[in-house]
Amino acid sequence: MRARRRQSRCGQSLVESCIVVIIGCLLCFGVFQISQLYAARAVLSYTAAAAARARTVGFNDFMVYKVTRTAAIPNAGRMMTPSFQRSTSLAALIQDPRPGRIGRLIGWSLLSDPISPQYEVEQSRIPLYLGAVRWGELPAILDYENWDDIHYIEAPGSEELVLTAVRQNYELRWPFVRSFYAGDRVRLDSGRDPAYVVREKHYPLYLQE
Asked: CB within 8 A of 162, min separation 6: which ones?
């Protein structure tokens, strides 16, 4: 009888431990996803400010469109064009759990100047993208899978102010996102209040240059 009671208690403890571990993992994934959403919203706020600055110096809609897209690259997902050879060293660091490799991975993530093949491509292609003069040239220079989900909106303002906002249907990538959200995407915007720049304080200086 005592042996059976011990076995039943061990089985109960195992089931309870499994339930606690599952709930803990779900909570961790939820926290990571929320932190990623806050970071994505910060990128959209920066994008709205960049678009407002571009409008104040007299750029046309085509140039503001290009500035908006390049400023939102951190939220744009995987690079589609151009194709490049991805780094295998970073993948090896991620797959190897040894303490030394983890320390190198943390050091790599804290670099002020990222070193990766994609960064090198972006650094060389963004000036070409901003300098393009036709719409048809853009996809062949630089393109990302989620760029079409990022939209620039210019709110009605006045002659003195430029009001802008940026919205995105952000793709959720963390595992078990359906435990917290009904779909795979969530709508983000650059903030409750649109970014604004005082027009008269910027464009005269730009024209003098």
From this structure: 52, 55, 56, 154, 196, 197, 199
The token pair that represents 115 in the structure block: 């070193």
Residue in the structure block whose two tokens are 């994505």: 40
Q: What is the pTM of this model?
A: 0.74
Tokens of 89: 């060293």
The helix or strand, by DSSP H or E, that contains position 196, with its residue range, turns out to be strand 195-198
Q: Which of 38, 67, 76 is nearest to 188 (CA)?
A: 38
* Residue in the structure block whose two tokens are 């469109």: 65
What is the C-alpha to C-alpha distance for residues 38 and 86, in angstroms, rounded to an integer? 27
pLDDT tens readout for residues 37-64: 888 999 998 998 888 888 888 788 999 9
